[in-house]
UniProtKB/TrEMBL annotation:
Domain PEP-utilising enzyme mobile: 805-875
PANTHER family xrefs: PHOSPHOENOLPYRUVATE SYNTHASE-RELATED, PPDK_N DOMAIN-CONTAINING PROTEIN
Protein's name in the database: Phosphoenolpyruvate synthase
Organism expressing this protein natively: Nannocystis pusilla
Pfam families: PEP-utilizers, PPDK_N
């Protein structure tokens, strides 16, 4: 197929590269002429290899992490294919196309897979390219080698790890006239490192681009401000060699003259021309940032490829139109849950915020506080940062909770484009003022006279009363649209208790900060951190201890332990016939009655709860029971931690001069011990109320399924709340199947992209500071629980599928209360995300295990079986020994 004949629906025939080049050529961009050998030719070719189906069977069975196996299998498949001649019909067509384009030209022969240069996966560099091909025989040989390169070991592993089946990918081959460039390189229309959509980056080297992409040279780097055209950064590379074509075919690597190695490859005019080309290509693709390959011959630019940049995190939706740059913080990071959230889940969180309203229609109009990006929720924090008092408060909190985020924010705040953002609207300020005006008085009461020993019991009653009122109001309405409306209305008011809870938590945080400053550099500094062990009143800790109690019921009964492995769909009835079974089943039912609404990623209403799927709980109980600890060991351990915390409290008080100072320190110590524990109560309240909303939603969905208007109950999580109410209201309406399918696909795609904690409306992600004393190969994060521990890493991505052994170091993407049972055996914690007050950090401090959180990519860089040193004081994770062979 000539480029001019390639249409928008020809991906399956010409592959990603071929389709892009055809689209660019038809749009009038300067693309060297060429044609594509289609996937039909590939299918004819592999059909002539009798062993090919057997090789596919072996590839399908390959472990995605088996590098040696991929290398061995790939070489075998390529050898088998290279022994097969091209079909005679293909050779005839290839000769005709070659003649039509010109047999005297040199050609680039480039692989173009059907799963390549796509919005969700680029597959860049996975298959082979051959340059400066001349003559009929060399062209046919290059086409055959391209076909075989679909099975390079890197391509095999990339497909396996990204969920692309080897049987469902085919290869086309682009044959394109060569241009003989003076310079070549890559252009990104957005900064691929920071994500900034207004920064264009260019890498440039001499000769063909192979020297650059092959890593033979350090290219020049040009970073261009797309708004002004100014070069923001120019970094000259050491361009020692250049790859150039030979007259008879093939290429040669030549030394670059000394006076050119550190000279600019591109002058200002060439940079401006490339920037203009990049902007036009991006506009052609609807504003999607592009990765371009280009060549420069004299002053003439040629475009030899364009593909979407798949590594960028999506921009927040519903961006403000005030012409300024806004700053967004990930809501999931604050909740220590970075998974994507279902559409219904995101919709309901927008009902909750901003807090302070008593009716849904009190939400201020205009740009919203909560926006979607990559199927996650982000909070627009710009208005709060525009007011001096709230700016100081937010930075103070962030420095205590997310120090690296605070450092990143400071670098952004003084930019004129950020300063131009609007201040908080009066309506929003009135909501906050109406809700929070009593907080300063309550805070003073906490510091000066409140009976601190009763704070946890008081918080328990407050939450229980609010949940009961919520349940009563929702249940008063008939099932269907009326109950759905009532549930949403009640959700708008669920956090009206925050003015009562907030002073307790804030007083604990402020007291901790004061004690740290007072005892910094003294012999008692360590006692301030020990003070946080065994905090009073943490509902998540109590839940975890109850899981340990369940394990104690199983431990003496081997048959019961074995029976847990065979439980399916949460049906425990068969366990009653086993020794110890009745007591365990009754205790487990009581546990679910209190905590069954909890679960992994519980801030998403669309995720199963323990009451729906207790697999994680049962797995954790089996793991605890199988280690043979003495009954009650977990409670003894927690009692010891409480004793350590109380002893530290006494030492801090005793180290203070008698009089007002000692009274004040004693009060601060009590605030830490008795107030920080209520940190989990707001979330505990919310998940209980969420469960009543969830019940109303599921009941409506089940009714719709029975009526044939919704295909499956779980489809309901891919509707908005208004769409669900409209369905419940109209007995003739059908659920939008295509919309549900598209949203489900978006959510699955979003699982594979890593959300940033902070991002601007231009897509920029502030770079994290790296400690100066970071050992080579170590990971840096936030030291969230002091101490140093060495142990074997256990990378856990799904807590329902893995058991942590005693003494192992838990390496996780995040932890929320659904992960808490794993902490019983953890000797240390490493988390991709987290701050000082997120779930994993608090639990680690209470359990006295060293923790480093916010390392970014620990679950990708670390492997189960490695021996690690986790330094929770310095925020450093070191690999001491690799996985044993």
């Amino acid at each position: 197929m000539p480029f001019a004949h390639i249409g928008s629906d020809d991906l399956s025939r010409v592959g990603g590269k071929g389709q892009n080049l055809g689209a660019l050529a038809r749009a009038g961009f300067p693309v060297p002429p060429g044609f594509v050998v289609t996937t039909a030719a590939y299918h004819h070719f592999v059909a002539d290899c009798p062993t090919f189906p057997a090789w596919l069977d072996r590839l399908d069975a390959l472990d995605p992490d088996d590098l040696a196996g991929a290398r061995e299998l790939g070489a075998a498949v390529r050898d088998a294919l290279l022994a097969v001649p091209l079909p005679s019909a293909l050779l005839t067509d290839l000769d005709a196309a070659h003649q039509a384009l010109g047999i005297d030209h040199a050609y680039a022969v480039r692989s173009s897979a059907t799963a390549e240069d796509l919005p969700g996966a680029s597959f860049a560099g996975q298959q082979d390219t051959y340059l400066n091909i001349r003559g009929r025989d060399e062209l046919a040989s290059a086409v055959r080698r391209c076909f075989a390169s679909l099975f390079t070991d890197r391509a095999i592993l990339y497909r396996a790890r990204n969920g692309f089946g080897h049987r469902h990918v085919a290869l086309a081959v682009v044959v394109q006239q060569m241009v003989i460039p003076d310079a070549a390189g890559i252009l990104f229309t957005a900064d691929p490192v920071t994500g900034h959509r207004r920064t264009l980056t260019i890498d440039a080297g001499y000769g063909l681009g192979e020297a650059l992409v092959g890593g033979l040279v350090t290219a020049d780097l040009y970073r261009v401000d797309r708004r002004t055209g100014a070069i923001k950064e120019l970094r000259l590379g050491d361009k020692k060699v250049a790859v150039r074509p030979l007259s008879g075919g093939g290429t040669v690597t030549e030394d670059v003259p000394e006076d050119m190695r550190r000279a600019r490859v591109l002058d200002d005019a060439a940079v401006a021309a490339l920037a203009d080309l990049g902007a036009r290509v991006e506009a052609h693709y609807g504003g999607v940032p592009q990765d371009l390959e280009w060549c420069l011959v004299g002053r003439e630019l040629w475009l030899v490829q364009a593909r979407p940049i798949t590594s960028l995190y999506p921009l927040p939706e519903s961006l403000p139109d005030d012409g300024s740059v806004h700053l967004y913080m990930s809501f999931g990071h604050g909740q220590n849950m970075i998974d994507p959230i279902t559409p219904l889940g995101r919709d309901l969180w927008r009902v909750v915020f901003p807090i302070g309203k008593t009716r849904l229609d009190e939400i201020p109009s205009g740009p919203t506080t909560m926006v979607d990006a990559g199927s996650r929720i982000f909070l627009d924090i710009t208005p709060a940062l525009r007011l001096a008092p709230t700016r100081r408060l937010m930075l103070r909190i962030l420095r205590a909770v997310y120090p690296d985020v605070a450092a990143g924010l400071v670098t952004l705040l003084d930019r004129p484009e950020v300063q131009a953002a609007a201040r908080p609207r009066p309506a929003a300020l009135r909501l906050v003022a109406r809700l929070m005006w009593t907080v300063p008085f309550d805070l003073a009461w906490m510091f000066l006279g409140a009976p601190l020993e009763r704070q946890a019991a008081w918080a328990d009653r407050l939450v229980a009363d609010r949940v009961a009122a919520f349940r009563t109001a929702v249940a008063a309405q008939p099932p269907g649209a009326a109950r759905l409306r009532a549930a949403r209305h009640e959700l708008t008011q669920v956090f009206t208790i925050m003015p009562k809870i907030a002073p307790r938590l804030v007083s604990g945080l402020l007291s901790l900060g004061r004690l740290r400053r007072r005892f910094a550099g003294t012999a008692r500094a360590g006692d301030v951190e020990t003070l946080q062990r065994g905090l009073v009143g943490n509902v998540t800790t109590e839940m975890d201890l109850r899981v340990g109690d369940l394990a104690d019921l199983v431990r003496p009964h081997p048959e019961l332990l074995a029976g847990l492995a065979h439980v399916r769909d949460g049906d425990l009835r068969a366990l009653r016939d086993l020794p110890g079974g009745p007591a365990f089943v009754d205790a487990f039912a009581a546990f679910l009655a209190r905590f069954g609404m909890r679960g992994q990623a519980e801030i998403d209403i669309g995720r199963p709860r323990w009451a729906d799927d207790p697999t994680l709980l049962l797995t954790s109980i089996r793991g605890m029971a199988s280690h043979g600890d003495a009954p009650g060991k977990h409670r003894e351990h927690f009692a010891a931690l409480q004793a350590e915390g109380e002893a530290a409290a006494q030492r801090l008080v005793a180290a203070t001069t008698p009089g007002p100072a000692r009274w004040w320190v004693r009060r601060q110590v009590q605030c830490v011990r008795h107030c920080l524990g209520v940190r989990e109560h707001p979330k505990y309240l919310f998940v209980q109320c969420f469960e009543h909303v969830r019940a109303a939603v599921r009941a409506a969905a089940e009714s719709l399924v029975r009526a044939g208007r919704l295909d499956a109950v779980d489809d309901v999580w891919f509707l908005t709340y208004d769409e669900l109410i409209a369905l419940a209201d109209d007995p003739r309406a059908l659920a939008p199947r295509s919309t549900i399918a598209a949203r489900r696909a978006d959510l699955e795609h979003a699982r594979h992209i890593h959300p940033p904690l902070l991002v601007t409306s231009e897509g920029e992600i502030p770079e994290r500071p790296v400690p100066k004393d970071l050992p080579p190969g170590a990971l840096a994060g936030l030291g969230a629980s002091a101490g140093v521990v060495e142990g074997i890493a256990h990378v856990v991505l799904d807590p329902a599928a893995q058991v942590l052994r005693a003494g192992e170091i838990l390496v996780a993407p995040y932890t929320d209360p659904g992960w808490t049972p794993l902490f019983v055996h953890a000797a240390g914690l490493v988390c991709d995300v987290g701050g000082m007050m997120t779930h994993g950090s608090v639990i680690a401090r209470e359990y006295g295990i060293p923790a480093v959180v916010g390392v970014g990519d620990g679950t990708r860089r670390l492997k189960s079986g490695q021996r690690l040193r986790v330094d929770g004081s310095r925020g450093i994770v070191e690999v001491l020994a690799e996985v044993a062979p």
